[in-house]
Structures are given as C-alpha cells and as structure tokens.
Queue: 3 jobs
Job 1
Amino acid sequence: MKKKLLTGKQIIAIICLLVTVGILCISKPISVSATGQHLTGDTEQSTIIDPPGTAQTPEELNKLNTENILTVTYNEGNGQINGALRILITLTLIALLPTIIIMMTSFARIIIVLHFTRSALGTQTAPPNQILIGLALILTFFIMEPTITRVYDEAIVPFEEGTITQEEALEKGIAPLREFMYPQTQLKDVELFMDISGQEWDGDIESIPNSVLIPSFMISELRTAFWIGFMIYIPFIVVDMVIASTLMSMGMMMLPPTTISMPFKILLFVVADGWSLIIGNLVRTFYW
C-alpha cells in the first residue's frame, strides 16, 4: 500500500494545533473577582451585613445589601429627576413625538393639501415626498409655535423648578394643545364620539375627554383637508377639459390630453403664484 504524504499546509496546521494545546496546558488558571470584594454567594463572606429586619434608620437599611443598590434621586420630592431617568423619559417622548405631531397638530391638514396640489398638477413626483414632508413640518412648527411656547412656559419650566408636580405638569402641558384642537374640531364629530362612548356633553371644552377630542379633531382635519383639495382641483380640471376638447376638435384623439395639459397647468400655477396662494391661505385657515 502506498502511504499518503502530508502536504505543507496540513503540517503547518498540525504544528499550530500542538502549540495551542501546549500553551493551554502550561498556563495557570486565572480567577477573576471584584477588587477587595467577595461575590454574592461566597461562603467566606456575604454581601448582607445585617440580618433582614434589623435596620432602624435609612442609613442602616442601605447597608443590608451593599452590592445591589439602585437609586432614583428626587430633590425632596419636587420633581427633579436624576440624569439616567431623565434620559429614559426623553427617549420615550421622542418615540411618541411622531404620533403627537400627526394627531394633535396641523401637520395632517398641511400634508394632505400639499399632496392634492401635486396630484392636481399631474407632476407625479415633483416636488418629491421629502420636500413635501419637510415643508409640512416647517409650516407645522410655524403654526404651532405659540402653543409650543405656552407648553414650555406653563408646564416644563415650572416642573423643572419644582413648583408643580408631575400630574399638574401633564395637565398644564395638554391644555394648550386642547385649546388649539377645539376650534378646529366640528361639533358633529365631538357629538359622534360622545354618542359612541355613551357620554353626555354639556358643550364645554373642559368636559371633553382627550379620548374623544383627539379622534374628533382628526376626523375634522381630514374633512377640511379634502374640501381644500377639491377646491384646488377645480381650475386644473378646467384646463384638462379645454385641452381635451381642443384635441378632439383637431382629430388628435390618440394623443393623451394629460401630455399637453401638464405644461399649461404648470404655467398657470407659476403665473398665478400658486405656492404662495395655497400655502398662505392654508396657514390662515388655522387663525380664522
């Protein structure tokens, strides 16, 4: 029988394996532990200094388990939160911020009207979605700036100073948003959700729960936005009808009317300063 010779790569692999095994065999075991401390459960020393139930003061209570202590610091209970918990609350608010912007501000009406404007022009993706969303966010901040300022002055600043509790801060923070939503909400929408929830309403804003006011505001915003979109469509439909009639009279029935009408619609929109008219009147709808 012929013996197979080992190749150079196999010999190198065997040598590396033998060297690794040798290093593991001659190395001493290393024990890892906290410096100057014993692990929980060590038979020599326990982290429990005193038996349970023997603490008489808060200082002695903190010594019962010195290795496992988690503290959340309040400044004498006046609302000052330590850094770690403040970061957690901030991240939670950032996660909820998109929902608040969409449901409790002017963003929904603005973005829907801008979408109808683009569809009426027939430009498909011009302006692109990123520009429309950015413009809607800027206009939302412009419209909501007085409300945001009130929330900051009446809720956040007193809470940071410790003059009001957390519950009072939440009530004062939601009040400006409620005052913004209520004038934009139609009464029939409020009555609809009040009737669905089985509650009675005396016509006062204070008696409307947030669970009713927010969906009522959203339904009213959708109705208003679609009505504005319909009004924007009317002049562009007239242009489409004129172009289609002209093409039919010329016998050019195979040519799509939208191909010819789109440049005329863009020209009409630019000459009439359409962006200024639409955005200006759209913003004014929140102040009437």
Job 2
Amino acid sequence: MAGTLPLSDEEDARVASYVDEFSDRFLKEPIRRYECIYRSHAFEDTRSVVILYTAAQAFALKIDTESPDTDRLKNEYDLLVELYRYFEGNDTSRVVRPVYLSPGGAFLVTEYINRPTAVDLIYNSEDDDQVAQVYRRAGSWLNDLHSRNPPIRYAFRPRWMTDSLRDLITAVPNDIASQSRTMVNVMLDEGARLKGTEDLRMFSHGDFHGQNLIVGQGKTIGLDFTEARDKLAVYDIVDFLKADIFRNGIASDVDRSGILKRNKDMFFRLYRHPVNVEILDYCIRGRLLKDWLALWRIDHECSEFEKDKRQRLGNRLRIAFQHL
C-alpha cells in the first residue's frame, strides 16, 4: 500500500484550502486529518493525491494545479460520472465513485478504497494462485470497459515504438547498445512487417497499469482516467501485463512476448474481445525493451528498485527473443 509523503508548507496550505472548500460545500462532518500518498514523478510540483479522513469515512483528493487552464480534472470527473453509471448493475466491475469537483477545477474528490492495488499484489504476493486471480480479474474489468463503445477496425502504426527504440539505443552505454542491437533490429523488421495490419480500436483507459486497478472484495475497481481515449485495445493490455516481470519463473514458463504464460492466459480467461496476437506480443516485447533501455540511459541514475527492475527486464528480454 502507498506510504505517506511530506508536504511543503506551500503544499500544506494549498491542501488545507481545498479541504476547507470541500468540507464547506459538501461534507457535514469535519476532516480530522489528511496525508499525501502520491506525487507525480513528471509533474511533482503540480499533481498529487491526498487522502482525507473523517470519523466515519475517507476520500481521495486529486490535485492538478494546472487543471484550471487545461480542464484535465474536469474532463476526468465528467467521465467518471458517466462510467460510474455505465458500470451500475455490473456484479464484478466498477470505477471509483466521483464525489466532488471544485468549481475552480484544481481538484476533484472520489471515494477512497483502502484495498490493495493490482500492483501491490503482483509485486509482493508470495501466492502465485492469488496473483493469477489478479490477472483474471484485470482481464474481466478491461473487457467490460472496452465494451463501452463499439470497436472500430484500425491500422497498426508502430512508428512510436520504432522511433523510440532508435533514439534509446544511442543514449545507453556501448556494451548495452551492443547487447540490445539485435533485439532492436528484430523489432524494426517486425514492425515494418506488421505496419498497416488491422486490429481493434476501442474506448481505452489509456494508463492501465496495475496501480490504477483496486482489487476489492467482490469487485474490481478502476481509477485515474485522465488519459482515457480511443486507441488500439492492445495498448491497455500491454500496460497491465508488463508488471509480470516482477513475478519469478523459469525460462520455459515465459512465452514469446516475455510474459509468464500462466498469468497471460489468466488475463484472457475473461477478456473476450478479439486481439491480434502478433501485434500484442510485438507491443509487449517492445515495451519491455523500451523500459529496459530507458533504465540504462547514461543520463539516468537508477534507484535500488529500478536496478532490480532493470535486471528483471533484461532477463525476460533474453528469454523472449530466444523464441524468435
């Protein structure tokens, strides 16, 4: 579960003003305490999440100080309202309940659910069966989300990946560039072959990593829809499956995409939209390779967590590319 992050005096004053507004306009009971549990790495000065506690309940206050100019949080709140209605009556899937949008647009409030995220369990659980069920539930939830609008046929365009790989291989140490050159070339050749292949484009989460899926008691709950838009369905699937590198397994347990066969199969138990498997496996391998190279960038200093992640990515990539 998330830990508590310190707030600067300026941030604390800002949060206190938001709390006062929310309390005055919506609540009938006081906020007894609050704590910051998330700060964006890319937008650390403007985007954060603070949990608010009353005597009886808790709320998640999502902040984006630039949102009054971009409508980022207003758009997410409006979508949450729509999705909350869309999932009504669904026995297994829903989204967090939207509670309040500040008229100024700098923050929104949802219910807070004190349950583990999918990533909490994938990273930390010692029970492989429990993790397999997380993948099954994630596939079911995404299947329901992707059913919101009719799919359309759309041509696969891998340039975003191939251009990124070309750039990354020039920004890593020479020995890593040498190790990865064959893999990058394979991806470039396969991308050229798959370019233009049709697959399904759907209404998608847009940032479907495991921290944005809560494993509730009986229901799986999605959150953080600021990147939601129409895109190829495989991209949501890739975003979720890539966390599998933190599970241990022998080489024979890993398929050509770099994912453990069991967890991938469990995801597709209840995800039933047709997916081009070649494009899916290509995109998973490409995402793992991009992430690995990014952690080897000369200008990047890895944390201990990232060093472990880099090692795990390298191990999976070596296995995945042996299948080709």
Job 3
Amino acid sequence: MYFDKIPTVLTADELLDRSFRRATKKMREKPDKRHANEDFVRAITQATHDKLVSIIQSFPEFEELPPFYRDLCDILFGMDNLKKNLGMIGWAAKNVRDVGAGISRGMRWSDTQVERKRAVARIASIVHRADDALRYLNDVRNVLRDLPVISTDEFTIVVAGYPNVGKSSFIRLVSSGDPEVASYPFTTKGVIVGHRDAERRRRIQFIDTPGLLDRPDEERNVIEKQALNALVYVADIVMFILDASENCGYSIEAQIKLREEIESIISVPMVTVVNKSDMKSMEGYYNMSTTTKEGVDEVLAELLRLREEMKEEEIVDLRSELPVPEMRRHGARLDDPTSNF
C-alpha cells in the first residue's frame, strides 16, 4: 500500500524537542569539549534538517500514483494544496540548514554561548513558521492511512447507484466486505472494498461506492466524487442498482437518468439490476432482493459469466506473437541441409 507506512508528522514543538535531545545526546558522547557550542549548533541543525526532509520523503510522489489514488488525493485535499504544504516543509529544511551552517562557521571568532542561543532561536523560529503545514500533513496522513487498498491487478466489479438502493447489502452478501448497512441515505461514507475467491488463488474485487446523485459535477460533494473516481479508473464491470419501489427516496426516472449518465462516461460493460424486488420488480432487468436473498445468486452468476467472457477475449496465442524465423518466410525448412540459414 502507498500510504500505510507514513509515520506520524510531528508538530513544530515535538520536532524541535526531539532534535534538541538528539543533539544533546551527541554532545555528551564527544570527549573534546573545546568546541562544544559550535558542535551543538551543527548537531541540532543536522537533526532538524534531517527530520524535515524525512517528512517529505515519507509521502509518495503524488503525480506518480495510479490514477485512482492520484485523483482521490486531489478530490480529498487538492493537489496544489498538498504541494504547497510539502513545499513549506522543504523551505524550512533549506533555511534551517543555511542558518545553522552560517552561524556555526562564525562561532570560532565570536561569543559561542551567545551564538549558540541565537542559532537555537533562529532554527526554532523557522520550524514554527512551518507548524501549520506540519499539522496539515499529519491530518492528510491520518486520512491516507485509512483509504481502502484497491488492487489494479484484480478483476474489479464496481457497484453504483443512488443512496440506499442496496449497494452495501449486495457487497456484504457476495464478498468478504462488511460495510455498514442501515435504512438511511449515505450510509456508505467512502469507498468500501470486498473480495471473493476465484480460481487459482485469484480474487474478484468488489467496490461499494458511495451513493451518487444525479446533478452536475460541480455540485457533487467529496463522497460522490470518490464514487465517480472509482467508476472511471478501476471498474472492469459496473453493476448499477435500481430501486423500483422508490423506497430509497428517489424516483425511478431519476435513477435511470443517472444510470444513463454513468454509462456515457465508462468504457466497460454495465449490468443493471433492480433491488427490493420483494416490494416491486421491473421487466427487462435482473431482479433481486438483498433482504430475502432471492435473485442474488442469479445476479452474481451473470457477473461471473461476463468475467469469464472478458477473460476469453483477452487470451492471446503466444505463438502468434513470436517473430517468424527468416527461413520460414523464404520457404526454407529448419532440417534442410542445403539451406544457408
């Protein structure tokens, strides 16, 4: 996973406290005390600079992330904002290094005790100017570590539809996912992932998206944009769930309109399923009830059938990809002793 190893980002005071303790410990280990103050300034400069740089390095290169995660980070935080705050940490690291090095070089010709205090004050001032960025990046870190692990190597079925149509219920029935299920809209507060074992230790990945609303992109909230992000980048099949009973709170016309919108932005197969068929079903669609479980197996079977069909289309005869030997192109045989090849 790209984010699970990001350590806690310290506040300015916590970072300075650790740097001071590290520098003090190094000073105690030095037998020669003649240049103690100069060495202390060098030590605290190095410790602070290294810690700031390690914070930057602990975050991934956002531009190099897979499209799903890159767009998700942009949705959640804004890529420009992320770069701005990481840049602030870089600014602090550079200035700590420059200020500390400059003061330590001049300490041999001045009052070292006074210069030592001045160096500590300057370094602390620089780090405190970056405190807001440090706190912001720790908040980002906490969110990133909780993001679901989306595998780009597994066959992925994305389940979409209006809020409260039964997406989470279906995922819970057919996979290892255990999303919260309740009878109110926007139960799902983020992208939830479940898995189902398949042949040869392969797995099928189900992604339960937040409820999508049929309104312009600029009016959609963060949760809705996460769902569209998943649909566009990771789906091999999209399963769209309708609630013909309209018990979800949205008309069937609005639901069908949303289905058509999603169909227009994806390039993968879409399976439309009517849930809550124990209340009302619709002809021309697969019908199921995640409450009674009637029809769920049939829907799953259709999804698995499509998966097998898509797998067969991807099979390539490797022999056709091999270069044709020159002698065969000229009609020569490998076992012909008269051949010059």
